[in-house]
Design a protein that fits this description.
Elements lengths: L1 H18 L8 E5 L5 H9 L4 E4 L2 H10 L5 E4 L8 H7 L2 E5 L2 H14 L3 E7 L15 H8 L5 E8 L11 H16 L10 E3 L6 H6 L4 E4 L1 H4 L7
Parallel strand pairs: 1-2, 1-8, 2-3, 3-4, 4-5, 5-6, 6-7
Helix pairs in contact: 4-5
Bound molecules: pyridoxal-5'-phosphate (PLP).
């Protein structure tokens, strides 16, 4: 089932990517495996999936050990400073950086590990109930502060738009994230000044996100099915 879902999804991604005039491999698929057992990750791995998104540190750590570290984990949940040490060890990318305190804490642990880490800044458009992420007008200052953290490589921005049944409602948020990244990139605030990453789009709105320039999409349900409640 997982292999079949991945197959369909990859075709849809390529079709959408090409239809808006972008290169075939412009969009990276992050399989969001939170609350699914390690067997689900192994099924996806066997079907060629490389990047996985996880939201909970302990759950990710257990899977990381079970898979012998043979996996590229993206952290997409809310990261507390006291979990920064484990996060520094197991993740290939942390997509949810939203404070200099967190960045410095990660940088300290990464220095000890002699490891550099790709990060994204999570942008919050001001939803009441969602506290993770930083307001768009504060991203510039955060990025300039992060430039002192030599082990962190800020590659771009990530966002979760307010939930809506209609995926079209997400389009303005995706468009705004894109233009924010474009202006920050012109100011050379990202690690790679030639290109930036935009992590946006989930199961119900990834086509819109691709049309608006997403370079990474985070898909759970469309690959693994409905999640059960958190234990
Ligand atoms: C759970 C989650 C996803 C995946 O959502 P689906 O709707 O299942 O595709 C993507 N991004 C984040 C940050 C998530 O927490």
């Amino acid at each position: 089932m997982i292999a079949h879902n991945l197959d369909i999804l990859r075709k849809n991604i390529i079709e959408t990517t090409l239809s808006c005039g972008r290169k075939k491999d412009a969009v990276k698929l992050i399989a969001v495996s939170k609350r699914f057992p390690r067997s689900a990750l192994i099924d996806a791995q066997n079907a060629g999936q490389v990047h996985f998104g996880e939201n909970y540190i302990q759950e990710a750590q257990e899977k990381f050990i079970a898979l012998n570290g043979n996996v590229q984990f993206h952290f997409i949940g809310h990261l507390q400073t006291n979990k920064a040490k484990i996060a520094a060890q197991i993740f290939s990318m942390i997509e949810t950086i939203d404070s200099i305190k967190l960045a410095r804490s990660l940088n300290k642990h990464l220095t000890k590990l002699d490891k550099t880490l790709d990060i994204l800044i999570q942008v919050n458009w001001g939803r009441e109930e969602q506290k993770s992420g930083i307001r768009p007008e504060c991203v510039r200052d955060l990025l300039s502060d992060i430039s002192e953290c030599s082990m962190l490589r800020p590659l771009g921005l990530m966002t979760i738009p307010p939930f809506s049944e209609d995926p079209e409602d997400a389009r303005p948020f995706f468009r705004n994230l894109h233009s924010l990244a474009e202006s920050l990139s012109k100011e050379k605030l990202f690690y790679n000044n030639q290109a930036f990453e935009l992590s946006m789009g989930m199961s119900n709105d990834y086509r819109i996100a691709i049309e608006e320039g997403a370079t990474m999409i985070r898909i759970g349900t469309a690959i693994f099915g409905q999640r059960t409640l958190k234990q």
